[in-house]
Structure formats: structure tokens, C-alpha cells
Amino acid sequence: MKRPILIHPDPRLKKVCAPVDDLSDELRRLADDMLETMYDAPGIGLAAPQVGVLSRLIVMDCVKDENEAPRPMVMFNPEVVAASDEMNTHEEGCLSIPEEYAPVTRPKEVEIRWIDPDGNERQQAFDALWATCVQHEIDHLNGKLFIDYLGPMKRQLITRRMQKLKREKARA
User: Fold this and answer.
1) CA gap 135, 31 in Å, rounded
2) Is 68 designated active site?
3) Architecture of the domain spanning 11-171
């Protein structure tokens, strides 16, 4: 089931999410809903707070090539356990900040540990777009948006545009 995506500014997007202690069927359903919502948007990542759920859950799939099989990933309690010193700048966007993009610099490679939907602990290295995406989504779980990496003027400008977008949607 597709879920509505919260648009910035929304106080829920600035909250630190609670760890997932118990993998319930309800949380697995949420993960499936989030994947459906992400693919429909379309996007490459989505965090639970973006659909109004303050739990440490992200989904992502950075496969862009239509000839390549999708690789959906569901991560409960994801955390960065190692990051490269080498940095990478990528033009980032966000489903909660539609039509806005800006360059963000993050570690080029990261090692992530998480719990999969079957309750198994997993650990994997990510690089390139996958590394950027997983860091962006984990930021959401800590109440941080990609615009928080920008200067105050650019951040305020984008926030004002989002407030205007929300007012226009409310009137429609």
C-alpha cells in the first residue's frame, strides 16, 4: 500500500527515531509499503520518518539501469560502522523536499550493519551512489535532512519554497 510522503518542514522529519526492538509483521508490512511508495515516487531511498513512522527503518534500491534487476534493500536499525577518509560529492535530492537538489559531500565508502527482515544481522560495504543513499537515509533516522549540509541562506530558500508548495497543495 502506497503511503503519503511527508513534505519538509514537518516536525516529524527532525526527530531522532527509536530503535526497532522487535520485528513484527506490522513492521515488515511497513517495509513493503515503503518500497512500493519509493518505487512509485520514484526514488532510490526512503526512511520511515518520511511516512510518519518514527522507527529506525530504511529501504533503498539504487539500481538505475532498466536492464538490471532491481535490488531492494530493507534495513532495520542501520548504522555506519566504518567510513572512508576519501570523500565524494553527489547531487542529492529527497522525496520529502521535491524538485530540490544540491551537492552534498559524504564519505565515498561506508560499512553498514543492520538487521534484515528475517531478523539476521547483516554487514556490507557500500560505495558510490549506494554509499551516498544509505548515509542520506540514516541521516533521516537521526532527524537530519540533506539541506542541513547547506549554508543557511540556501537552506532557508529551499524551506520557504517547500512551505509555499505545502500551501498550494492544501488549497488544491
Assistant:
1) 18
2) no
3) Alpha-Beta Complex (3.90)
